[in-house]
Design brief:
- With 316 residues, this protein is an all-alpha fold.
- Helix content is 78%, strand content 0%.
- The chain has a domain at 43-247 and 296-308.
- It has 13 helices and no strands.
- Helix 6 crosses helix 10 (208-235).
- The chain is globular.
Length: 316
């Protein structure tokens, strides 16, 4: 029942917000469609290349994080897991997120369930850290180009929360307190499992080379995706400062984490609201739709990969 309620909330948020966005833009849909149809195909193909490169970097990062826990998956397997994660995030409106699915099926490859879950969680943490680093760099070097004052305190809040999260994950004394707290959850051995996962994640502080390589790949992920967005704007005849894209996209990513179907609706609405200041609402809406198309294309690939797997244990 709880899963059903969670699924209903995600569906309502995604389609409610997306429907609201289309309703607000309803008078401009014809113009937006013409803008998309008149887009420069060479720039769109360039954006598609960088989106594919983003997937490659995500897969490499997942492979590095797994290897940090002696979970040896190939780059091919890591790429399959990444694409299947996109598929479950975007096409399967359930309470089971793409990260959970990746961890579940990774355990099939390496037979180490808890380490698989912890590694996928760590992969997400490192990705969020990279987003914060990119946002911080953009905030420092933006020099006031972006006329949206509210975005700076939002990024600073994210940076503060991220710093607190990193301290919680790495501080030895906090780790001891977390262990005591988790030990109180005795129902079905939940506390023991939580402690095992937390200890695996906490132990990454002793693997600086793994974390460093993962952070570098994560920064590359964020940069190449921002490059893709830059080319999408160019394809529609609008030149947006790359520094502004680096400043806006981290906020889009974080806002997209609210309960929804893979950020659907929330991501597009945030993109339109923030980029309208520098590119106009029609072009911003068109770019959000093109970016969504790229996201869905990766998901289709993930669905095909999933259909081709000979094993399909039910996700939990």
């Amino acid at each position: 029942m709880k899963k059903g309620i969670s699924t209903a909330i995600r569906v309502l948020v995604s389609f409610g917000v997306l429907g609201g966005l289309f309703w607000i833009m309803r008078k401009d849909i014809g113009q937006i469609w013409r803008i998309i149809l008149s887009g420069d195909l060479s720039y769109i193909l360039a954006a598609a290349f960088f989106i594919a490169l983003m997937v490659a970097f995500l897969s490499m990062r997942l492979k590095v994080v797994f290897h940090g826990e002696n979970l040896f998956v190939s780059l091919k397997e890591a790429t399959e897991l990444t694409c299947v994660g996109f598929f479950f995030n975007n096409f399967m409106p359930t309470a089971v997120g793409g990260d959970i699915v990746k961890a579940h099926y990774a355990a099939h490859f390496n037979k180490k369930k808890m380490k698989s879950y912890a590694s996928v969680f760590m992969d997400r943490i490192i990705g969020m850290l990279a987003i914060l680093l990119v946002a911080a760099a953009a905030l420092v070097f933006d020099r006031g180009r972006f006329d949206f004052p509210a975005i700076r305190p939002v990024i600073l809040i994210f940076l503060l929360l991220g710093t607190v999260g990193i301290i919680i994950m790495t501080n030895r004394f906090i780790a001891q307190g977390m262990e005591k707290m988790f030990s109180r959850f005795r129902l079905r051995g939940l506390g023991d499992r939580l402690n095992e996962v937390y200890s695996i994640i906490h132990d990454y502080r002793n693997r600086p080379e793994v974390v460093l390589r993962s952070v570098i790949l994560s920064v590359a992920v964020q940069i190449v995706y921002c490059v893709a967005i830059y080319f999408l704007f160019l394809s529609l005849g609008k030149r947006v400062e790359f520094g502004n894209i680096l400043l806006i996209m981290p906020v889009v990513v974080f806002v997209s984490m609210v309960p929804s179907i893979g950020g659907l609706g929330v991501r597009e609405s945030t993109t339109v609201v923030l980029f309208s200041v520098v590119a106009g609402k029609e072009v911003s809406f068109a770019v959000s739709m093109l970016a969504l198309a790229g996201n869905l294309l990766i998901s289709v690939v993930g669905g095909l990969v999933y259909m081709g797997w000979s094993f399909k244990p039910k996700p939990v």
